[in-house]
Write a structure and sequence with these properties.
226 residues; 64% helix
């Protein structure tokens, strides 16, 4: 019988649960959005959309990617900010100068081409430079892709609403300057940075036993880092 510690779920349980929850709530979003959008269409005397039609609609695309966009923006900026900025007492911060264990932390050390190191580290040169910044680059690219898909979905949804009101469609260039699109973006961007600021600050005084996002329960409030 396979030992618990060698099982696939034990080794990958966190990502499996998070992806399952994401897909579950995304499905719930789809169903709720489909019903809400069809109700709006029926109020205007228009034919309701099938599930397949709604899946390709601007309404669904805009609602999905405006949220993904803000998530990737928040994560990419947060990863970069934690390189040089500190928060005394937070488990999310690197230690301050003068604190016990401060100095050059493991994440600041130059990578060494040792056995088992990822191949870009062993290769060196351009590939190593790219790999040293690959996390923030990947998150920034995911933000850019989500931003573009949000814009396209929002434009399509906006023009669908224009058609329902008997008004002409708006061109992409003009819509990019519309308050409607930026309102969708900014309302999500501010909430993401509020969430990050909350965990940075709350982890100074509050604890969660067993979580790597928290300091040890008996750690003093002034202790910075995990």
């Amino acid at each position: 019988m396979k030992n618990k510690q060698t099982s696939f779920f034990y080794r990958n349980g966190l990502s499996i649960i998070l992806l399952f929850l994401m897909l579950l709530f995304w499905f719930c979003q789809f169903v709720a959005g489909w019903k809400d959008h069809n109700h709006e269409l029926e109020e205007h005397g228009l034919v309701a959309l099938s599930a397949g039609q709604y899946l390709l609609s601007g309404h669904f695309a805009s609602a999905t990617f405006e949220n993904w966009e803000s998530e990737f923006l928040q994560m990419s900026i947060y990863v970069v900010l934690t390189i040089g900025f500190r928060q005394k007492g937070s488990s999310e911060s690197k230690k301050l100068e003068g604190e016990e264990g401060a100095g050059e932390e493991d994440v600041d050390k130059e990578p060494q081409p040792k056995p088992g190191a990822p191949w870009p580290v062993r290769k060196g040169g351009f590939w190593l430079l790219l790999y040293k910044n690959s996390l923030s680059i990947a998150l920034a690219l995911l933000f850019l892709l989500s931003f573009i898909l949000h814009f396209r979905g929002s434009l399509k949804s906006y023009n669908e609403e224009q058609a329902m009101k008997g008004e002409p469609p708006v061109a992409a260039g003009k819509y990019f300057g519309e308050a409607h699109f930026w309102f969708e973006s900014f309302q999500n961007w501010q909430s993401e940075f509020l969430a990050v600021a909350s965990i940075v600050l709350l982890s100074i005084w509050l604890r969660q036993k067993g979580s790597p996002q928290s300091k040890p329960v008996d750690a003093p409030h002034s202790q910075t880092g995990d």
